[in-house]
Every structure is written in C-alpha cells, then in structure tokens.
C-alpha cells in the first residue's frame, strides 16, 4: 500500500480542515456573514498579492481571470506584447487575438525565459505597445520570469503590465505594487490550497485608467462593475460562496505562516527538489526555475508518460507530464501550497525506484540524500 | 432553538451525502476517473434537459452560462427578441446589448408572463429576428413561461430559441428537444442540489449552425471548443472538478427518483405552498406561478424586509425578499431541489407566527391545514 500523493502543479492538495469546511451546510450568499467572508477574502488576498488595490473574486478558472484582465487591459485594435515561454503565454496571446488585439509574441524555446533585454528590444521596436503580458511561473516548463525587472521596463512606458500569477501567487515572491504590476490574476487551485472554481484579479490605478478608456467586450467578466460590488462586500452574480468561505480558512493559514516565510518554504523545497533530481543524473528543464514546481527532463531512453504511469500505479505519487510538444519529454513535480519537504522526498523516492524498475543504473538513495543535504543547508538569500 | 432552514431560490440546500463528497481529497483533473465523471455528468444532464445533444459544463455562475449561450446565438449587429418578465430577462437583454446585438425587449409588468401571442406579434413586427431569449422560471417574480408554445413559434422562423433554465432544470417540466429549444442553460446551485460554481449549456443542431456562422467574441466561453473537448470527456480549462464529482451523486439521486416524479413532486409542493399562503389571506404574486418557487405579496401594512428578518431571526427560516423595485413588497419561498413538503410546512408556519407577531389577525394553523389538504388532494395533470 502506498498513499495517494498529489504533486501536480494544480489541482494541489487541500488541507483537511479546509475540506471539512467545504462539507458545511450551504448558507445564503446575500447575508452579513457572506459580506464578512468577502471582506476577509479581499483583505487576505491583498496580503498575498502585496497590494493596496481591490482584489476581485470571480467564479471561473484561471483562464477566465486572465481573459478578464486582458480584455480590460487593451481595446480592440490596440497593440500588445505577449511574452511567451510556454503553453500559458501562448494561451494569453490567443485570447488577445480572439478579441481583436494585435498581440505580438516574444517567444523563447521551452525551458527558456523571456529576458528583460528581449522585452526592452521589443518595446523599442513597438513603441505603440499598450499592454505587455507575462507569466510569472510558466507552469508548462517550470520557468520563472523576473517580474520586477520586466515591470520596471513597462512602467517607463504608457503600456500596462498584465501578469499571470496563477501558479505563483502564494508560493513565489510576488509584490504587485512594488513591481509595478497593473493587472494580476490567479486561481484557487494552486498555492491558495483550494479546489478549482475561483479566480482573482487585482488592478492598479494605471490599469483602471486604461480600462476606463474603453468598453471591454464582456458582461460576466466586467471588472468595473465587480469592483463597485466588492467595495460593498458583494458580487454582481452568485459566487461560488462555499469556496469563498473555505478560502477564508486558507488565507488565515497563510497569514499565520507569514507570506515571506511561505515564499522561503517554497524556495527551500524547490532547492532541495532540484538537488535531489540532479543527484540522480537528471537535468532540470528550466533555465531559471520557479519555486512552485520543478520540471525535469526524462532520460532519453525512457518514455515519460510510461514513467509517470508507473510512478502513480506502483508508488501512489501523481506527477504531471509534459504538455503538447513536451509530452513524454519532461515530468513536473509541484511544491506549491499544502506541501512539505517530506512530500518532496516521497516524489524523489518514487522516481528513484521507478528509474531502477526501468533498468537504469541508479544509486538508490542518492537523490534523497542530496535533497536532504540541500534542505538542511538552504539559506534564503 | 430553531434549525436553520434555507428556502431561497438558490443557493438551495445540498444533501448531506453530497456535502461529504465535497470533503473528499482533491484528485487530479486529467485522469481516467475524471473522464468517467465527465461522461456520467453529461449523460445525467442529458436526462435532466431531456435532450440528445451534448451538455457542456462551464466553471462559472448561471450568468456566465447565459452569456456563453447568447454570444453564440446571435452575432454583433443581429436583431434579437428578449422576453422580459423580471430581473433575469432584463439581464439577458443587457448582455446582448453589451455584445452589440440589437435586443428588442418584450416586457411585461412584474408578476405577469410574456404570452405566446405577444411573441407572435413581436415576431411579425420584427421578421428579421435571429434569436429569441426567454426565462423559463423568472426567479425574481416566480412566473413560469410556456416554453412549449413559445418554442413552437420560434421554430417556424430562422431564429434560434435561447432559454434560461437556471432555476427550473431539475424542478419543472422541461423538454429541450421536444420543445425545440436551441440553447439551454442552467446552474448548479438550484434544483441540481449543489453549491454554486458550475453551469451548463446544451445546444441544438440549429443552434450549432447559427454558432458556426460567426466567431463569438469569447475565449473562456467558446462552446465550439468546449464541445470538442466534452466529446473526449475533457474540458478546455481546469474545471471545478470536485463539484463535478459531487454532481455525479446528485444526478444519481435524480435518476433514481425519476425526472417526471421530480417534476411532479415540485408541482405538488408548489400547489400546497400556494394553498397555504392563500388560506392566510395572502396573494400569490405570479399570474402563472412556477413550480420551483412561490412569490407572495407582502400585506400592504407590513415592510417585507422586516418581516423576513423576523422570520429568520426568530424561526430560523431563510426566505428571499423582492429585488430592485420589488424590495419589501414580496417574499419568495423556494421549493426546488433538496426540499420536501415538511420544509414547506415550516416556511408557512414561520410566516403564520411572524404575521401574528406583527399584530395581523391570523387564524393560526389555517395556512398549515390548507397546505396539508392541498398536498393530500394533489393529483398531477
């Protein structure tokens, strides 16, 4: 018997106390208690986003929240830059094109990041850019973008800076206001330790000014209306209010651990995880790895999909594979949200055993020992 | 001590076994088990909708599903008719206008229904109508529209028939295919006995043909892409999959009771509920009342909001008030989803006691006795 361990970069494990919260009877959604929940949620999310702006809850998945941000960030006919380092950057590029925005993709090969120098060059080439979109943690490849440096470049222009923090908010250092982010979106099912169903968007003053200049083509994702409502601790439509109530619990956990301590925990897990897999002779896929997940290249002689099926079937550990052109070529281990170091050890142990099962020459325990040493030695910069 | 009884027309009570389902650990969303859940969900919803077409789950509230339906049903510049008998009809009218559809409202005063004759006249006056939108059960006033007759009229034209069944699907007789409905939308938090967070849309052949003729201005609510995915038992984006898993349980309940038996139960509860309030000298607000809820006019000498606060505070019964211009003028008692006759008796009893508390000359028990007799005498047509 092996326990089932979910180590995918969303959905992620939900703490037991929060699962029980989800089993509580359903209340009405227009009551003083419901308003109190919305007040706590927006206050808690401000802390997670490190912003003084309103954080607006939406009932949808992360893609819905990004669509909401994008349609407010640039009107039809505008020019936008989309920094594409993988599947999610590509998705936002498609959304903009769907809405008639001329989105110029600045694309790097999978595993690489779009550097500030690349953005600088693109802004020089496209001085009429009205919006720039970046993915903080590109979940499909495990890379992290330097939002602070990118934000500085965008802030010098009239363009707004739109950031997908779906798999980073609550896991990786993220400072909306200090880093000059104008639209910031995340989802519930990653480091916020909830099931999927909710997503959140915050908008800066510069962002609201951009949104006021045009009529975004949406009703359900109308952020101007939603902002009015959230200021009265209300929502325009029936929200997924049992998830909101549960979110209060997870935000209380986050506040009690402390957001900087949480960032540090994730950085430490990531550091140990990378050390473990490297010690097995495996290659970390991301040139600049994120703290929320680790993508590892599958040894050339193996089929990654078969490897993951084996790891799940025999050892109960659920990892994520590569998507699209990366299918079978990488596997991804999440360390975001409700996860600790021993969960990461289980993942490394499962992969060690599986690699041996597939006949690779593996020194059993080498990955574990390296992770253990890295964990102990870690000191946050 | 009085138990808390939620008798609002959404959110509605969730059966205890389904609440417990929501507390189960979170699985991954791209697995054979998750595909099995989606297969069961679409099959079960076909039964609820009485359709052979695909039923597409969306992670959003009912308004999101209606937006999805409306943007596929008519392109920018088209003319549509919107049958408006209250707040929800009005909302769909606004959505269409947001998307540049020339929506002509056929409006009746609150409590009235739009009749087939009115639609016939409107279609004659606007022969270039490309879509007609109706609300099955107008939750804000408690009226029911005759979808069968309306559908027949629309079917004679080239227009598509778009129906909001948010508070009717799973409560009131509804036959998508027989009634020639082209777009049908509902939400999870009404008669489907779940918390809010999911919504569903089904589309007829005529509907898909209309959708194919233009490029709907949406990415998140792209039903064409969602249909491709659902046919592989998949979704384009991370769905609220723990709600989907719970939905399997509620669909199993529905199938085991039988959809016609469920319609009959709701009709019987509605019949008894109306008899009870009438026996107290109160007036039923809807000219053609729905089976999912009963709207009752508040006696002129009382403030409806105060009455409902009293009923909740002293007797634990949560009813809904009137919205917008009906605030304080009506109250609404839901009998949809996980509710039985004795819940309705509790609502009547609470209102009886409250009316007496406010000094009205009430024969205590008169409402209860009338409801009891009506319940016993009810025979479904």
3D architecture notes:
2 copies of one chain form a homodimer. By secondary structure, chain A is of the alpha/beta class. Chain A contains 13 helices and 14 strands. Chain A has 2 domains: 5-11 and 259-377, Aspartate Aminotransferase, domain 1; 16-256, Type I PLP-dependent aspartate aminotransferase-like (Major domain) (Aspartate Aminotransferase, domain 2, 3-Layer(aba) Sandwich), CATH 3.40.640. The first copy, chain A, has helices at 16-22, 32-49, 62-73, 87-98, 116-125, 147-155, 205-212, 223-231, 241-257, 259-279, 304-315, 341-357, 366-377, and strands spanning 5-6, 55-58, 79-84, 102-107, 129-135, 137-138, 143-144, 160-164, 183-187, 199-203, 293-297, 317-318, 320-321, 330-334. In chain A, a hairpin with an 8-residue loop joins β13 (320-321) and β14 (330-334). The longest helix of chain A has 21 residues, at 259-279. Chain A is globular, with a radius of gyration of 21 Å. At the A-B interface, α1, α3, α4 and α9 of A face α1, α3, α4 and α9 of B.
The domain count of chain A comes to 2
Global geometry of chain A: globular
Strand order of the largest sheet of chain A: 2-10-9-8-5-3-4
What's the name of the CATH homologous superfamily of the largest domain in chain A? Type I PLP-dependent aspartate aminotransferase-like (Major domain)
């Amino acid at each position: 018997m092996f326990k089932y361990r979910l180590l995918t970069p969303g959905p992620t494990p939900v703490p037991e106390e929060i699962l029980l919260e989800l089993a509580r009877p359903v209340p009405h959604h227009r009551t003083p208690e419901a308003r109190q929940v919305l007040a706590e949620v927006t206050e808690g999310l401000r802390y997670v986003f490190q912003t003084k702006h309103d954080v607006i809850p939406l009932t949808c998945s992360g893609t819905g929240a990004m669509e909401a941000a994008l349609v407010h960030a640039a009107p039809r006919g505008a020019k936008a830059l989309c920094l594409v380092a993988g599947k999610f950057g590509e998705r936002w590029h498609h959304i903009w094109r769907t809405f008639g925005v001329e989105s110029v993709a600045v694309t790097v090969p999978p595993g690489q990041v779009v550097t500030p120098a690349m953005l600088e060059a693109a802004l020089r080439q496209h001085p009429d850019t009205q919006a720039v979109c970046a993915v903080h943690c590109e979940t499909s490849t495990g890379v992290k973008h330097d939002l602070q440096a990118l934000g500085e470049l965008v802030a010098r222009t009239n363009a707004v800076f739109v950031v997908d923090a779906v798999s980073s908010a609550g896991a990786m250092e993220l400072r909306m206001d200090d880093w000059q982010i104008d639209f910031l979106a995340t989802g519930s099912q990653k480091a916020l330790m909830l099931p999927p169903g909710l997503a959140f968007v915050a908008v800066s003053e510069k962002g609201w000014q951009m949104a006021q200049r045009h009529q975004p083509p949406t009703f359900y994702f109308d952020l101007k209306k939603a902002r009015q409502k959230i200021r009265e601790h209300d929502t325009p439509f029936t929200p997924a209010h049992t998830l909101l109530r549960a979110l209060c619990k997870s935000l209380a956990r986050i506040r009690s651990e402390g957001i900087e301590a949480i960032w540090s925990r994730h950085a430490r897990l990531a550091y140990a995880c990378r050390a473990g897999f490297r010690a097995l002779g495996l290659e970390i896929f991301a040139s600049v790895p994120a703290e929320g997940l680790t993508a590892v290249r599958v040894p050339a002689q193996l089929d990654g999909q078969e490897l993951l099926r084996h790891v799940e079937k025999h050892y109960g550990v659920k990892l994520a594979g590569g998507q699209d052109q990366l299918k079978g070529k990488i596997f991804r281990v999440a360390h975001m949200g409700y996860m600790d170091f021993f969960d990461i050890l289980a993942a490394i142990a499962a992969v060690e055993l599986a690699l041996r099962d597939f006949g690779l020459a593996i020194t059993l325990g080498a990955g574990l020992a390296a992770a253990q040493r890295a964990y102990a030695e870690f000191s946050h910069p």
